[in-house]
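Thread: "does anyone have the structure for this chain?"

Original post by V.I.:
We have the sequence but no experimental structure in hand. Need at least a predicted one for the grant figures.
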Amino acid sequence: MRIPTAAITAGSLVGGWQLARLTGKRPLGGFVLAAGGILAGREWARRTSPAVTGALVATYLGAFGLSHPLAKKIGPWPSVLAVSALTAAASYAAADRTAPR
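Reply from O.Q.:
Generated one for you, tokens below.
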């Protein structure tokens, strides 16, 4: 079964943040983030070129980093939703809408 990487990235960013927020244990959120990144990265590597995979990994990690300062400007929920949507859109455009190789 082909897993949409857009759902993996958005779900792991939102899910990791929620888990860390609700439990007060940031490493748990980091675990979800890492697991999502590994799963999505494997799919990207299988479906796309190394350059595209690298760009998508950078987008995913950059979204996580951007969410923190952005949360100070617009609030945590809007920040996490914005970076999740951005990452999901990039994942869809670069990996999900094309057929696997």
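V.I.: this helps a lot. Helices lie at 5-23, 26-47, 50-74, 76-96.
O.Q.: and The mean pLDDT is 94.
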